[in-house]
Amino acid sequence: MVADMARFETDKEYDMLKTAIATGVGLLSLTTLAGASSDGAWNALFAKANGTCIGQSRMVSPEASAPVAFDDATGKIAVMLREKSPKTKKLVNVICLYDKKSGKASIAEYQWLGQ
Question: Which of 22, 38, 34, 86 minimizes the C-alpha distance to 59?
């Protein structure tokens, strides 16, 4: 430490450098934490996606898949829903794409190949 301080004119300059380094390290660690979402935030987002998708599907009590979160470039969450139609007694399958930015959902019915 004494050899390091020889490069500085005063103790104040040395202290300022230490403060600047500590501040920089602190800010860098905060930026990585800010990018990570908490489990609570993910659960709230998934609950909102499920609620929006179920509401727009007009299904009475569908079975829902676990939400599938796509990367940030896509910005979508997919939820698959299924329910037996009360009228036809056939299984109805829909996929819902929930947009994380707008909060809107798009729904389309799908069928498995060969069925």
Answer: 86
In which residue are the tokens 């430490």 written? Answer: 1
Instruction: In whole angstroms, give the CA distance from residue 27 to residue 87.
Output: 60
Closest to 64 in 3D by CA, of 27, 17, 96: 96
Tens digits of per-residue pLDDT, 21-72? 655 555 554 443 444 589 999 999 999 999 999 999 999 999 999 999 999 9
The pTM of this model reads 0.65
Query: Same structural domain for residues 63 and 26?
Result: no
Do 89 and 66 meet the contact criterion of CB atoms below 8 Å apart? no
Same domain, 98 and 53: yes
